Give the backbone structure.
Amino acid sequence: MQNTKLAIVGGFLGAGKTTAILALGTSLRAKGLRVGIVTNDQGGELVDTRYLEEHGFSVLEVTGGCFCCNFDQLSQKLDQMSQQEFPDYILAEPVGSCTDLISTIMKPIHGGRAGQFELAPLSVVCDPLRLRRFMQEKQSAFPNEINYLFSKQLEEAEVIVLNKYDLLQDGEAERMEKFLSERYKGIVILPVSAKTGAGVEEWLGCILSAESRSEKTLDIEYDTYAAAEASLGWLNLGAEIRGRDGAAFDGNAFSRALMADLRERLEANGSEIAHLKLYLVSASDTCKLSCVSIYEEIIEDKHMATSPSQCSLIVNLRACASPEFLSTAIRGSLDALAHTMALEISQTAHESFYPGYPKPKYRM
Ligand SMILES: Nc1nc2c(ncn2[C@@H]2O[C@H](COP(=O)(O)OP(=O)(O)O)[C@@H](O)[C@H]2O)c(=O)[nH]1
Ligand SMILES: [Mg+2]
């Protein structure tokens, strides 16, 4: 029997990893292949997991820390996925503030420390609008440590997926490819739009027909990497939303207003957003929105077709602000909306924190 192929799809927060995994998974499934997905986050209550499950995929989570620091949990989830689903392919999304994946995940797996998997080349998804700001350094609202992390993620790639191709103007993709190929030598660069599907088959061909050959050990300063992680506050929130006296409410309007209010509070505080995600679920419908920078518009990934009277809400927010600021901001936004939209909002889960110092179990 052939080993399951494991493809790790990394890249910075908001780059489009989950969307790209959805596109890869959908294409593999259409070819009659079985796919399992493993998601990852520093906290729990993950929008990505719910969104991928909504598309009919079997998803397991590694929570409470990145794959490398939670290697035993990753190994256990990979085994569980293999035994439950007998997948031909497992697609794994490491948390977007993580790097050094070859040394801390891929080499240990290759060395037999987690199941029997054939490793695909490491893909790193890159958001070209984030890259545009990185190329014009002065316009990046992130501290230098985050730019360092962003760059190290790209440097480590075996394949750079230059995603969101559909958003680029004429000639810009070529300029970016040139910049990337001069800066990160010898790395395959593929223009892709995970959203429209353009370039996805080429990417699939590139990673699934080849094995990871990377022997490289990323030259990385862990203190700077840790400082990058520690400059982002994380907030995961769960809540139940009800229309007052059982009245139906507009879930799309509520979601848009909450995203806009949060974005405004962060912008006013000078806090760049790495990724803000919202997922609203009623008995029969869902709504999903995302925002990947204070410089960018809110993206509506999925609308609700119906007006619910009751919903559960998940918000995942990663931004350059203290955990306390994020907690206060979301409380302020929810209180304001409860009032203006006549809603009863009760919080069911809440965690806000700075990620800890990365301490991989293995580094090979
Ligand atoms: N226009 C466009 N948007 C995209 C593309 N890929 C992802 N996005 C959007 O970017 C946002 C972040 O994507 P997501 O997959 O959640 O990023 P992740 O944090 O890297 O997993 C979402 O609103 C996506 O719809 C793309 O190819 N084109
Ligand atoms: Mg994701």
